[in-house]
Amino acid sequence: MSKEIVTLDEFIIRRQSDFDELTGLLRDIGVAAKIINREVNKAGLVNILGIEGGANTSGDTVQKLDMYANDKIIECLKKSGECAAVASEELDSFVEIPPVLGKKAGYVVVMDPLDGSSNIDVNVSVGTIFGIYRRLDPQKPITMADFLQKGTALVAAGYVIYGTSTILVYTTGNGVNGFTLDPGIGEFCLSHKNMRIPKSGQYYSVNQGYYLKFDVEMRRYIDHCSDMNYGLRYIGSMVSDIHRILFQGGIFLYPNTRKYPKGKLRLLYECNPLAFVVEQAGGKAVTMRSNRIMAVQPEELHQKATIAIGSPETVAEMEAFLDKYVFKSY
Ligand code: P6P
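^ Those are the sequences you sent over. The predicted structure of the assembly is below.
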């Protein structure tokens, strides 16, 4: 008997009890993901035709794909009237979304519309990352404080991977579920129910090229991974690297380096949403000082953070190296 097909829309409606008003917002994100998927899949063609970054045959300016994704998501978020404002890696500050039929929108969205977009030219998977917060006070105007909330205040978060298949993975705080886009019917269909990360894993994901620029405790930990014959998997696309760890177990690391003393990845719209998903799947996400990522108080929109995220036992094993080697100077 064929397995029942549960589309993203049906799943969201069935789970409506989670967050009533969130239903339309999640569906808006699903629509945006389908539109971005279509353009990402054509990106290679665009480059072949040599019009990337220029004007296409009809004279239209070909937008950079990450700005295209940014604009498309904002356009889709205007539909449900549940999102009051958006903060994006592509924008200096947040943008407000016009109310729909005078409705007081209850949420704000943080996002990296197309993370790892430099990989598109070499046909490596890229992704969209999003997080959803309740507004601090729907009766008051939107301020930066609505966005500078800890990850623990997220009500939903997820990512989309545009890869060999297009998968949307999200949580509303009641576990993690994955939906694969079926191009035949143009719907995201439930494909990974109640995802759980392995308690430990044999993969580590870090840019080994920075080895000599890491702190001594990080270099000792990477030596340990080699001693344990862990597999190194790193494609320079955070969403894809962490998606693999979610499935196969292990750890993803972006430590501080001399070039990025506070880390490279963004706390608000990269680390926190992915930390929420991984924690909801039973994993762990900490900074290089063993602070829970989701408990860090954001001070500014594009704040950077160091991160170690993945299987709980593997992250704990890494933290033991921080304790063992870090000089307790502070
Ligand atoms: P590096 C992509 O540019 C990105 O923001 C993440 O997706 C990825 O994990 C990281 O940067 C790669 O950075 O310094 O290793 O090239």
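The longest strand covers residues 107-115. The chain has a mean pLDDT of 90.

Shout if you want it in another format.
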